[in-house]
Design brief:
By secondary structure, the protein is mainly alpha-helical. The protein contains 23 helices and no strands.
Length: 416
C-alpha cells in the first residue's frame, strides 16, 4: 500500500491515478465528480475542495477513506463542515479511529470559542447510537476540558462517561469508584443532572453491596427531585432494600408507605414482596410464609426467583426439607434463562447456593457442590462472590458428612 502520510488530497489523487492507471474520464466515472473539478484538485488549483467532493472520491476508494478524511480536516476550519465530516465518519469502517481525530480537530478549531465547541460536541454526541463511540467522545471532552480548566464540561463529560461505563457488569466496583470523582464537580451540574447522578450512584451502590452509600446517595436525590419519576421510585426501592439488609425494619415499613403511592407498574408487586420479606426477616414466619407462597403463584415471573430465594432461606432455617424439595420441583418455572441485570445474577447465585445446601443436607454431595459452582459463576459475573464463601460452604459440606453420614476424607477436588 502507498504511504500517504503527510501528503495532500492532491497527492493522493495523483498517486491513485498513477498506481491504477486511471484517466480523468475513468475517475469521473468512478466518483461522479466532473473532470474539470478533479483536474483542479489534483493540480493544486483548488486548495480546499468541498467535503461533498472529497467524500465522493473517498467513497470510490474505501481503502483510502481514512487518508482522505485525515488530509481534509487539516485544511478545513469551518465548524459546520467539520460536523458534517464527523457525521459522515460515524458510518464508516474507520469510525473508531476517525471519530476522536475529527472531534479533537473540532475542539481545536480557532474559528470557535473553546466552550462553544465543547457544548456543540457534547450535544452532538447525544445523537450517536453507538455507546462505544459516545464514550470515546466523552473521554475526549473530559481530557480537553481538564487541559483548559473548564470545570462544567469536566463534570458533564464525567457524568455521561459514568452512565455508559456503569453498564459493564464485570466492572461494577471500579465504575462505582470512578463515579465518585463526579462529587468533586457536583456544583457544576444542573439540578436534573445531579438527580440522575445521585439516583444512579445509589442504585449502583446497592448492586455492589454498599448499602450505607446507597441510602446516602438516594437521600440526596430525594431532596432535589420534587416530581415523581420511575427512576425516583426505583431509587426509593433500593433504599428500602438497603435498610432491609441493615435490619432497619421500622424504616423499611415507613418508606414502604411512601413507595406504595407511586403509580408505576412495578411498584404494586415490589411493595407486597418487600412487606412479606420484612416479616420473614423479623422472624414472623407464620405471616411471611403464607404470603410468599401465595405470591409465588400470583405475581409475575420477574419476582418469582426472589420469592423462591426467600422461601428457601426460611425452609433451610426451620429444617423443612420437604418444602425445599417442593420448591425444586418447580425450578423450571422460576429460573431466568437470559439474565441481564445485576440483581438477577445475584438472585440466581443465591438460588443455587440454597439448592446446594439442601442437596448436601440430604446427602447429594456431588450435586450440592455442582450447584454451588453454578452459584459462583453467576456471582462472579457481577463481582459479588467472595472467596471466603467457598470455605464456608466446604465447611458446611464437611460437617454435614461427619454429622449426618459419618463419612470422612471426601474428595472435593473431583467436583469443584
Amino acid at each position: 500500500m502507498v504511504d500517504f502520510k503527510h501528503k495532500t488530497i492532491s497527492d493522493i489523487i495523483f498517486q491513485l491515478r498513477k498506481d491504477r492507471n486511471l484517466t480523468y474520464a475513468n475517475l469521473e466515472e468512478l466518483t461522479g465528480v466532473s473532470i474539470p473539478v478533479l483536474h483542479k484538485i489534483e493540480a493544486g488549483i483548488t486548495k480546499r475542495p468541498e467535503f461533498k467532493t472529497v467524500k465522493a472520491i473517498a467513497r470510490a476508494f474505501p481503502d483510502f477513506y481514512k487518508e482522505f478524511v485525515e488530509c481534509f480536516i487539516t485544511i478545513e476550519n469551518r465548524i459546520e463542515t467539520l460536523f458534517e465530516v464527523l457525521q459522515d465518519v460515524l458510518s464508516s469502517e474507520e469510525k473508531d479511529s476517525l471519530v476522536p481525530k475529527v472531534a479533537l480537530h473540532l475542539l481545536e478549531n480557532p474559528n470557535c470559542e473553546t466552550e462553544e465547541s465543547l457544548n456543540r460536541l457534547y450535544y452532538f454526541s447525544h445523537r450517536i447510537n453507538d455507546s462505544c463511540l459516545r464514550l470515546k467522545i466523552y473521554k475526549l471532552i473530559v481530557k480537553y476540558s481538564r487541559e483548559h480548566g473548564i470545570s462544567n464540561f469536566i463534570a458533564r463529560g464525567l457524568l455521561q462517561k459514568y452512565l455508559i461505563e456503569r453498564l459493564d457488569l464485570k466492572r461494577l466496583d471500579q465504575t462505582f469508584q470512578d463515579g465518585l470523582e463526579i462529587m468533586h464537580y457536583i456544583n457544576f451540574l444542573s439540578n436534573e443532572e445531579k438527580v440522575i447522578y445521585y439516583f444512579r450512584m445509589g442504585l449502583h451502590a446497592h448492586n455492589t453491596k454498599k448499602y450505607r452509600e446507597c441510602i446516602e446517595f438516594c437521600e440526596k436525590g430525594m431532596v432535589l427531585e420534587k416530581n415523581e419519576s420511575e427512576l425516583k421510585a426505583r431509587a426509593l426501592l433500593s433504599m428500602i432494600n438497603s435498610h432491609l439488609i441493615q435490619k432497619n425494619y421500622d424504616k423499611v415499613e415507613e418508606l414502604l408507605d411512601v413507595f406504595e403511592n407511586y403509580e408505576y407498574e412495578f411498584v404494586y408487586e415490589a411493595a407486597k414482596i418487600t412487606r412479606a420479606i420484612t416479616k420473614a426477616r423479623k422472624g414472623e414466619y407464620d405471616i411471611a410464609v403464607p404470603l410468599l407462597e401465595n405470591y409465588l403463584e400470583v405475581l409475575s415471573q420477574q419476582y418469582r426467583l426472589h420469592i423462591v430465594d426467600e422461601l428457601f432461606e426460611i425452609y433451610l432455617k426451620i429444617d423443612d426439607m420437604d418444602a425445599c424439595s417442593k420448591l425444586l420441583e418447580r425450578e423450571y418455572k422460576m429460573l431466568v434463562t437470559f439474565p441481564e441485570l445485576p440483581h438477577t445474577y445475584k438472585a440466581l447465585g443465591k438460588y443455587y447456593r440454597h439448592k446446594g445446601y439442601y442437596q448436601v443436607t440430604i446427602g447429594l454431595i456431588d450435586e450440592g457442590v455442582k450447584s454451588f459452582a453454578v452459584s459462583v459463576q453467576y456471582l462472579t459475573r457481577i463481582n459479588a462472590f467472595e472467596e471466603k464463601d467457598i470455605y464456608v460452604f466446604l465447611l458446611f459440606i464437611q460437617n454435614s458428612i461427619i454429622l449426618n453420614q459419618g463419612l470422612y476424607g471426601y474428595n472435593f477436588r473431583k467436583v469443584l
